Write the structure tokens for this entry.
Amino acid sequence: MSQNKYGLDIGSSNFKMCFRDQVLNEKNMIAVTRKEVVGIGDDAYDMYEKVPENIDVSFPVKGGVIADIYNMQILLSKFWQKINGTKRSMGVSDFFIAVPRNVTDVEKRAFYELVVRSGIKVRNILEVDKPVADAVGAGIDVQNAKGIMIVDIGAETCEMSVLSLGGIVESKSVKIGGNRLDEDIIYAVRNEYNLVIGNKTAERLKIGLACAGSNFNSISMTGFGRNVLTGLPTSCQISDEVINSSIKEPLSTIVEEVRIFLENTPPEFAVDIIKNGIFMTGGTSGIRNIDELFRKNLNVSIKVVNTPQESIIRGLMRIMADSRMSSLAYVPDDRLFE
């Protein structure tokens, strides 16, 4: 194994890379013209919804899988240069990639091909199932015979998994996540205030006001956008009541999907899940009082991990550093590349 070990968690919203004790976490976005790259990561996000027609700002990952391999290769190369700095001479590297569980062989192969074709000198490419890395990052011992349940609510997907002995016993993914909440916030603000807002404003309102529990404060934030009636730019105070009402339906859908998953989980794991609870990760798990919502409807204890959006990359860091966890990373099945 090379001493230069990198971990990759490539999400629909954010790109995370780790090297030793460094973690790079930026928006998984790229801004390009026909001739050049004009922005990546957080810089591209700053341009989002503000660019002229000749600049295209996009997310190369959709629904948890790579949709634009060419732009994703550019992002990987530039993020790799960024985490290493310009002064350090790099040798051959090893990559540990967190891959979604519920994807096709072709979609899974894309994560491997991304690194192979990136132009980076690579010795080994190993994959780690995202739910496993997630649990390790949450500080859970995944290598014993106890059942562990993880619910990862990301930007575009919600992945539910039961783990035991370092592997995945049951797993399910549904196409709903934080972006769906943003869409519903946009719709609600338009209906309530006659105000058209963008996705960035919706995300800001979600982070600042959204609460999934029953106890929330009567607070508000300023929303900027275009008035539907006059067509002119304007602003108004957006209440948390409107935001919380708008996200109620998609969150209820996620809760119901988790309930169905629990009902189909092998009964032998019931005692472990009841005893240890459900661990929640992913950026959308950061919504205030989301644990209260799940606990009330599922009658199971809920534990939202610290900084849930970085749980997977933390897990990769531990797996790369601890030889006792080496069995959790594996070489991709050769049949994927026939």
Residues 60 and 68 are 5 Å apart (CA to CA). The chain is about 35% helix and 30% strand. The mean pLDDT is 92. The radius of gyration is 21 Å.
